Amino acid sequence: MSGERKVHPGVKLALELGPVVLFFAGYMKLREQTFEVFGSPYSGFILMTAAFIPLMLVTTGILWWLTGKLSKMQIATVVLVVVFGGLSVWFKDERFFKMKPTMIYLLFGGLLGFGLLRGQSYLKLVMEEALPMQPEGWMILTRRLCAFFFALAVANEVIWRSFSTEVWVNFKTFGLTAALFGFFMTQGGVLNRYGIEEDGETDGEKDGEQDKAD
User: Fold this and answer.
1) β-bridge mates for residue 40, sequence order
2) Predicted TM-score (pTM) of this structure
3) Transmembrane region positions (predicted)?
4) What is the distance between the alpha carbons of residues 80 and 86, in angstroms, rounded to a whole number?
5) Which of 18, 62, 122, 197 is most buried, with most CB under 10 Å away?
């Protein structure tokens, strides 16, 4: 497929969050059960992990088919889901899958940090079209998001190592999602100051002109 196509935001959100929500619902229903599969016992968590992997592949494939494009972050996420989820199922060990968010956030934070060391904003490369902003604004946002990703990696390690599986599943389903949403909601000051309107003016310049007019 050539070129990226637009898809309804609700459909995109459903495809991205659907597997996580279904994993949560399935785990809550099967968490205290053990299942015999080919003569081997599997906990509800491992069984839902095994179901999550193909579900993630299918929804990502549908998203690619609808949009004609996948971001590097989406591809990296799917690869890590397959690797760490597969290890959990193969060894019947929950720890591999629980470490997956840590690896994802370390990878994203590391990539952003590497770009910053080179004086570049890799975040700009993937979001510039959807969020036009001055270079200085991109560097500020990238530094903040880099630090935030590392903080999420640490938080995930603390939660899965210190609390029960049920606490971790709730944290992964709701805590991480809310944290990401909250982070971007709190970046309004950067977006307002360095954002670029379609006419080429920044929001800051427009505010300054309005103040002079008043």
Assistant:
1) 37
2) 0.82
3) 12-30, 42-67, 73-91, 103-121, 141-160, 167-185
4) 9
5) 122
pLDDT, tens digit, 9 for 90 and up, residues 19-31? 999 999 999 999 8
Q: Are the C-beta atoms of 7 and 66 separated by less than 8 Å?
A: yes
Give the integer Cα–Cα distance in Å for 149 and 109: 5
Which three-class secondary structure state does DSSP give residue 196? strand
The SS3 of residue 7 is coil
**Residues comprising the chain, all counted:** 214
For residues 59 and 15, give the distance between their C-alpha atoms in angstroms, rounded to a whole number. Answer: 5
Please name the residue that has the structure tokens 């995930």: 156
Cα 175 from Cα 159, distance rounded (Å)? 11
Per DSSP, the three-state class of 5 is coil
Identity of the residue numbered 84: F
Report the DSSP beta bridge partners of residue 202: 196
Segment 71-130, tens digit of pLDDT:
888 899 999 999 999 999 999 999 999 999 999 999 999 999 999 999 999 998 888 777
Query: The tokens 């637009």 sit on which residue?
Result: 6
Question: Residue 176 and residue 101: Cα distance in Å, rounded?
Answer: 9
- Tokens 């505010």 belong to 207
Mean pLDDT of 125-150: 89
Vertex 74: Cα angle to 71 and 76 (nearest 5): 110
HSE-CB of 134 using CA atoms within 13 angstroms: 15
DSSP string, 90-118: HHT-HHHHHHHHHHHHHHHHHHHHHHHHT
